[in-house]
Amino acid sequence: MAQVTCANLDEDIQDMKVVPHFRIYGDHSNDCEVSKNIPLNLHYEDGTPVKEERLSVDQSIVDVFELERPESYYEEPRKSDSPKAHVAKKPKYAKKTRETKLRESGSIGTVYSVRSVVSRYIRYKKDGSIKFRRINISGKDIYYKSIFKCIWEQDLDDFPDFPVIYYGWAFVNRLPSGRGYQVKFKKKLKQGNDKLTATAMIADSTIENYQIKKLMATRLKKIYQKETPTAFVFIYGQPEVNTSKSGLKYANFSLKNLDMIDVNYECPLPKEYNK
């Protein structure tokens, strides 16, 4: 029943003075380690400290990237009227399961956005476990190290015949209709002798229909208002070659929802990716 909140969670990165963090409030027990800033000494039911018996990361299960959030994701937690629901029971030890052991070697579980996939990729790159890490998308396991493709004058015929995450610097402008944004990558793709501009459209209606839109809506607006409206963009999809009314070929990414794109003010990847 302890009261804890996460501060700064919905702040945009440019406005942050302090990174997101947990903060306690209200009355806490005199024995509460958190309120006294005492490091937690967690034990499992067999009395084994958390730091012991870690499995190697190559035995871990894969992350799962779900392309749609379940309806239950947005549901508010239900409150119970039972008197027992308000009685805080302090377990002596936490139960240790196979899943618990696997979680000790890294973040494992389900993610619902390209942004989360990028964050995990960066984390695994830093801790040196990237060569073991896999992600499951639509039932297919893919190594993290092979899911990211740079848009840098590469030939479309060399890309996978299934969606992956493409990235690179892009211009962000309003559509001529005024009903959305156009993302146009600076570097082009190739198909034979043709150079293709890579684009994606983000309709205002897509933003409005996205239930957790504040971060993305704020970033798109701020980037568009910059003197040079550029962003480092990640997008999950498979480019489709189209021909404009003027006869020019271009590669277009269709967005199912805003979970399929991540827009950043700067390149969050190591400098060798900053292209």
Kindly list the characteristics that best describe this protein:
275 residues; OB fold (Dihydrolipoamide Acetyltransferase, E2P); nine-stranded mixed β-sheet; four-stranded mixed β-sheet; 5 helices
What fold name goes in the CATH topology slot of the largest domain?
Answer: OB fold (Dihydrolipoamide Acetyltransferase, E2P)
Q: For the record, give the distance between the C-alpha atoms at the N and C termini, rounded to a whole number.
A: 49 Å
Helix content: 10-25%
Tell me the strand percentage band.
25-35%
- Low-confidence runs of at least 5 consecutive residues: 48-59, 98-107
| Rg of Cα set | 23 Å
The number of helical runs is 5
Main sheet attributes: strand count, strand direction, barrel closure: 9 strands, mixed
Structural class determined from secondary elements = alpha/beta
Give a count of the beta strands, DSSP E runs of length 2 or more.
15
If you average the pLDDT, what whole number results? 80
Q: What CATH architecture of the largest domain would you give?
A: Beta Barrel
The general outline is globular
Order of helices and strands: EEEHEHEEHEEEEEHHEEEE
- Total domain units: 2
CATH domain class name of the largest domain? Mainly Beta
